[in-house]
Structures are given as structure tokens and as C-alpha cells.
Automatic annotation (TrEMBL):
Domain of life: Bacteria
Protein name: Iron-sulfur cluster carrier protein
Lineage, highest ranks first: Bacteria, Pseudomonadati, Pseudomonadota, Alphaproteobacteria, Hyphomicrobiales
Residue sites binding ATP per the record: 124-131
Annotated MIP18 family-like domain residues: 2-72
Matches recorded under PANTHER family: IRON-SULFUR PROTEIN NUBPL
Organism (species): Jiella endophytica
GO molecular function: 4 iron, 4 sulfur cluster binding; ATP binding; ATP hydrolysis activity; ATP-dependent FeS chaperone activity; metal ion binding
Amino acid sequence: MKARILGILRQMTPPDGGPDVVTRSLVSDIFIADGKAFFSLTVPAAAAERFEPFCRQIEAEVVKLDGISKAMVALTAEKTAGAPGARNSAPPPPRQPAPAPARQPGSVKPGIPGIERIIAVASGKGGVGKSTTAVNLALGLAALGLSVGLLDADVYGPSVPRLLGLKDKPKSAGGRTIIPLEAFGLKAMSMGLMVDEDTPMIWRGPMVMSALTQMLREVEWGPLDVLVVDMPPGTGDAQLTMAQQVPLAGAVIVSTPQDLALIDARKGLAMFKKVDVPVLGIVENMSYFVAPDTGKRYDIFGHGGARAEAERLGVPFLGEVPIEMAIRESSDAGRPVVASEPDGPHAAVYRDIAAKVLGGLEDSRPKSDAPRIVFE
Ligand code: ADP
């Protein structure tokens, strides 16, 4: 199928009138899963506007192929202004066809140099505490002695800057890469920090996927043991594409105990299954409430649903986080509870969750240290 797509691309004349995009090595790896094809074109920043309609034309052609129900072509804009090694001044040699090891469909993900493992924190719907969990899980992993990064991929409602109290814009290193910000010992990047005209990246609404790719590949993350990705909530196409594009070692699903949220959480499980990403487990957030004056515990939403659900679905239950003023206040003040009250009970809960996540990662780790470049 990839060869057929490349065949189509070879026959299409780019808007700048130059040779076809395959010959010029502008095409990324082509990812195909579930009848959906995704790839990106890397073009000079100045030409991005002109290439946008071309991407739509490519999609229209590719979707005509038997077996392809949807095609998504994203533009990745290269900054070229005299940067040494910029792609248009020194085109890389055409990609060699690599031998294709036996592999289940769905995961075509070159790893990110310098990042050992990437995990996603996802939820079936918004407002369940996904970002709060992602931040405190990242801090919990750091407290276990790992070097940890946090990537806020929630393009629609990026909250990591608020949760970590980040205000500065990330700086660019030589116009080519971005230096992540640091907070509480984490390296952090957020789509929310990038949406500014002065940014060294081209960033536009329709370019969500290429923005994500840039945040993964053009940020100086490494060396990191774990990068935690705060996914956009929900299980729609955008989330599926992200889950498919990011070379994920595993996913954590955050749910509240309400049944409705659990139904949504099940959709999250199904989504990661589709793209062959192991689900490391479910976190039940806002699980119960302990009255500060009496110490009495109230299971406001009915308690234990997520644990039972996890058991039924055969995924690990990672832990329950109470609904707690201290968690909300510290989050919203940019002082996440694991960092601001490391000796308190909530930090312990998150560290425990982090330890379970880490255990799950070790279990699902490939036995060989060979580069994880895989093909469908
Ligand atoms: P999501 O990423 O799922 O949209 P957030 O992490 O932004 O959710 O959380 C939504 C709101 O709920 C925030 O104000 C946050 O501080 C609060 N919150 C999250 N988890 C808890 C908790 N365990 N206890 C109290 N408040 C919480």
C-alpha cells in the first residue's frame, strides 16, 4: 500500500513546480492503520501556504485507493533562513527501503532519539483530571529517580503551563531546535507555550499533527528516561492519529468513578488497542472525599467502579486519587501536590501510581535493544 501511495505522489507536480515530493525526500514515513493513511510533507516554511492545497489534493487522490478510507497529510515546515543543513539546501539522500520485519499492523513509529520511553495519559472525556494526573505522575516518576519530561499535547485546552506555573516562552537553539522549559525537575513543553507569532515554528490550526511531530522531534528533550504525554481528551480521530503517530510504550487512562466516565474510559482502551499500544492501567481520579473536619470518607460517586472495570477488562488498576481541595488548589496555583507536599498523603498516592506504571513499562519492554523502527 505504501508503494502505491508513493506511486501517486511521484506523479503529482508540487505547487513550486519542482520535482515530485518523493524524489525530493519530502515525505515522512507513511503510517497506515485501520484503512487510514497518515504522512507528512516537510517543506520550507515560506512555501507552507502554497503546499496546503496540495496536501488536500494528495488526500483526495490517496483516498481513492482500495483499502484506504481516510488520508491525512500534514505539513511540517522547515525553518530555512540560512540555517546550515536546512533541508532545501542540503537534501538528505532518498530513504532506502528498509527490510520489513514481521509486525502487526498499526504501529510504524521510529523512536525519538534521547527518549527512552514515551507514555500517554488519556481520558475518554474532558474534566476528569487527566492533566492533573499527568503532571503528578510525571513528578512521581521523577521522585523515583528518573529523568522525566512532560509534553502537553492537549492542543485544544493546554493546561500544563498553568499546572506547572510556566510563563516563559521556550527558547530556540540556533533556530533549529527548541529548548524545553524546566519546572520542579521536569522538562516541559506545551502547545500552549507555542501559539505565538514570534515562535520559530510555523504553527497553525490545521497543522496539529505536524506541531506534535515538531514538539516530539525538534525539542531538545534528551536524555530522558520517560516522556509523559498529556493527550487531548476523548477518543476521536485526532486522538487516534496522535496515539498512532507517537511511538508510545504504553498508555494510562484516567477516569472518574461515574459509570458514564467509565464508558468513555472503555473507548480509550479500545483506541489504544487499535493502535497496538499497551494500556498500563486505569487511574480512578476524584475517587472519594475525606471530610477535613471529621476525617470521614464519602464515596461521592459510588466507589470502586474503575477497579472493578479494570479487573473485568484485564488491565491493571493503578490507584485511586481522592477528590481533595489540596490537589485542586495546588494544581491551579502551579504547585503540583507531589512537588509542593512531597511528604503528604497525596504525593504518596501518585508515587505509588508512578511505581506501578514503571513496573508495567518494564514488563512490556521489548527484550532486544535494537532500534525500535517497525513497519506494518
Ligand atoms: P482534564 O485534563 O481531564 O480536563 P484537569 O486535570 O484539568 O482535567 O482537572 C480539572 C479540574 O479538576 C482542575 O481544576 C483540577 O484542579 C481539578 N482536579 C483534578 N483532579 C482533582 C482531585 N483529585 N481533587 C480535586 N480536584 C481535582
